[in-house]
Specification:
Oligomer: homodimer
Largest interface: A-B, 93 and 93 residues
Helix content of chain A: 40-55%
CATH class of the largest domain in chain A: Alpha Beta
InterPro entries (chains A, B): 6-PGluconate_DH-like_C_sf, DUF2520, NAD(P)-bd_dom_sf, OxRdtase/DH_put_Rossmann_dom, TM1727-like_C_sf
Distance between the termini of chain A: 68 Å
Largest sheet of chain A: 8 strands, mixed
Number of strands of chain A: 10
Number of helices of chain A: 10
Radius of gyration of chain A: 23 Å
């Protein structure tokens, strides 16, 4: 099969793949750019927010729209990258009358069953990464977790995924939920910890960038040893003296004090209640 | 002045620097290796734990001891890298009768005043990094925060620091406390988040290494944009649907549920109480 060829039992797509993006947020932006780079044609970009639709449409040099009724049928694949809360409703609207198309969503926490009873060929295409509109990522190294409602659909999704990534993994909706939860811990909560560090430093006139070698090494370590083995600091040492001192430094931030205690207790359950 | 030359008002060290390490933990191990590599002579290694003393002594090919009374006076500089709780007592013992020596400690949260009234030449040498005995670090990129009780002492400490690091910064004890607190957030708590992610994945048969590209990108981002700008995920989007779902996935872990709620609230204070 040629690389632009997708086949289902009933239909065949030969030649250039055409994709329509439903949603124009961080993920849609980076995905659209990566797909375009490997020769996929971005047919249309929809977002209910005009600024987002226009901005991504212009970036990808394609038609953009805010009125879902104006979506045309030219694309082979429709990819939903929207807030979970509006996904189901949009799926119903977009799938209607397009039974020959392939529909995918990119949500870590939404099951594939969102599509059930609404169309014939569907699946999930979840590239696990933290996306920002303005910071480009190299999709090659991003693991893409896929799921599909049939073997033939899976084959099509896998080939789409391999166009942009070297790592494509089949995963069920149930497992993907835990993957997404883990990603929140490893990325979103981690970034919040950076944010707290940055605030504390800035308040005391110390530039955040002095922290970067430490942050880099913390990341580098867990490429080589497990996070449990890599754990250092006052909590794992059981150093109550330092912990109590540090709690006092955050006297004006009860929220941070509470978090500090809980995180320390997570690291070392043997820590008694601190002062 | 030659590079091996340290001068105080009253004393002079010319030639090879000789350092004795008080403590044989993670930091002492990495510091000792780095100092030895640049030609500093490691005179003795002390630890009250025989296994640690022996192991580092052998690693650095030098004398090791567990009896502080056997410490000799051959070194120019004595560096304390021990638990905060024993630091003051050890300082009193080691400084006694060694008024011509330079004494340093490497503790982020201990003030320089630990040395006050106990000796003449002293200071702090705090390399901000997460150290493990078994994982070597490149000291060159580690910022070393120094403090001293006189201009002459500072000059000596700075030259010692520049032997192993490209970034040497003078910082007061009061500021260093906040630096250390920030390091706990940016490194120790971050690593704990990795640890939680690892547990969740392992429990569901997913290998932790699928998380590494996401973790690398999370780190890479804050080299280019601030942590606040880099924040992504359900909390900052105000996506209560995902957050409530994820809380349910942790039903058997009340500790993680509590942390999840507090961290999400930290990221987005506008989040109402979750289900």
């Amino acid at each position: 099969m040629s690389s632009g060829h997708i086949s289902f039992k009933s239909i065949k797509f030969v030649g250039m793949m055409k994709v329509t993006l439903i949603g124009a947020g961080n993920l849609a932006t980076q995905l659209g750019k990566s797909l375009k780079k490997v020769g996929v044609i971005i047919s249309q970009v929809y977002s209910r927010t005009e600024a987002s639709a226009k901005s991504l449409g212009e970036l990808l040099d394609t038609e953009w729209l805010t009125d879902i009724a104006k979506l045309h049928d030219e694309a082979d694949i429709y990819i939903f990258s929207v807030k979970d809360s509006v996904l189901c409703e949009l799926i119903s609207e977009v799938c209607k009358g397009r039974g020959d198309k392939l529909f995918l969503h990119t949500a870590g926490s939404m099951p594939m069953s969102c599509f059930e009873g609404k169309t014939k060929h569907y699946g999930v295409f979840y590239p696990m990464q933290t996306f920002s509109k303005t910071k480009d990522v190299n999709f090659e190294n991003i693991p893409v977790f896929i799921e599909s409602n049939s073997i033939e659909t899976e084959d099509a999704i896998r080939r789409l995924a391999y166009k942009i990534s070297k790592r494509v993994i089949t995963l069920s909706s149930a497992e993907r939920k835990y993957l997404h939860l883990s990603a929140v811990w490893a990325c979103n909560f981690t970034n919040y910890c950076y944010s707290v560090a940055s605030d504390l430093l800035t308040q005391h006139g110390i530039p955040f960038d002095v922290m970067l070698p430490l942050i880099d090494e913390t990341t580098d370590k867990i490429h080589k040893i497990s996070p449990k083995e890599a754990q250092t600091g006052p909590a794992v040492r059981g150093d109550r003296n330092v912990m109590n001192q540090q709690l006092k430094l955050m006297e004006d931030r009860e929220d941070l004090q509470g978090l500090y205690q809980m995180l320390s207790k997570g690291i070392n359950p043997h820590i008694e209640t601190l002062d």
